[in-house]
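Slide 14.
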Amino acid sequence: MKRKPVIGAIAVLLVAVVVLELTIIQQLSSQSSCVEGSSKSINAEGHVSPHNLFGDSSNDGLLSTRLQYKGDTYKEVQKHHSNIPQSKANHDATPIAPTEEQQKLIKVAKNRGLQNVDDKGPILEILTQSGMNIEDQNELDQVTLDQLPTWTQIQNLYGSKPIIYGLEKCETFRNAVEPTTRFFGIAGTFNTGTNLVADLLKFNCQITERMEVYGEKSKGVRWQVPWGKHMMARYRESDHTTATDKDVPKEHILPVISIRDPFSWMQSMCRHTYAAHWPHSKNHCPDLIATEADISTMPKLNMLYGRNEEEDLEKLVPVDIKYNKELTVHHLSLAHYYSEWYNDYLKADYPRIMLRFEDMLFYGEEVTRTVCKCGGGVPVPDNGRSGRFAHISESAKKGASAHGAQSQRTNLVGALIRYGSLANQTDSMTVDDLAAARRHLDPKLMETFRYRHPI
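Slide 15: predicted structure.
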């Protein structure tokens, strides 16, 4: 009985802490993605960037004096970027009646006894485009169907139509490059579905003028741009060329660039880092802002921040992208890497197409046909499926036992499930990470491709 006052005091203290945290979160949520007028520096390749403060590894010390975000900076950011959308819920989606083909598929599913299919007509069509036979119990069962998103969910996440950036320069490209010498070339950062884009074009698009000269296999679709599909666009004008593309004139390539929601992209980078190197752990990834635990256990972060006691220091976790033995590009964080990489293409003055990875999944036919036409191609008359559009799937079998753990699925069914919701999008991200994402993910990119910061 004597402990009640103590317990009551503890309860009051806990409530006060929760209220304080909620207040901080609300304040951080109102902040934007980047600070205007940020310092510039030249990286090892001579590129001047408003995001990149690394000239080389010897410049790590710049973080202690140049990366600060005091209260007056927050106010300036809020004034300039207050119009950035705050959530993904969204895009003014309005219900769209199923097409005749989708109505047939819904009827087939219902005749099989499958339930909850009325709002999944487009999803069923995507599955059939990948070669799945929805009449077969062994290929589509109720368990798998229930995990697939409704079309209303997809519209709420990504809108009622795809976003394709750069179509205004299609005619410029076609007029400048003779058809027999045209190519599509794929580009994108790691984990953005570049292979999916390449395969969709290869199966569904061809430049017939090229084929007439160079044979049926020369459809004009290359799996990467000559300067390298993961290389930043600034290297288009350099001497760097991939081994198989040395004889391809760069101006004869129409780059097709895949971009992806930055939060799901960062989660994929945690699972598959490829050539990206940055201090992080399984418990804290993508790790935009170093925690005290990170600093105490990771040598590079300890070197940067271990002796610095400035409360206002932004403890960004730097990222190195090692493209090859001669070239490593430095970025202040994953958010800076994303912004710098895609801004190179967004601001390019030559013809290029930028499209969302999510649209390649859910609006694959429309996007592929549009891109194909842009480069002067035409639909493949017979892709092995009676001339219909062919979506790409590594496997289209049913159930978790066939696909493995849902978190590890890489086939079309698994992708439709994973990207049909926002689950796990901010796993292991701290409040500081989310606030840093608002500051450093470029607002122009976020607005252009209608990506939203989680609340």
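Speaker note: The first helix runs from residue 4 to 29.
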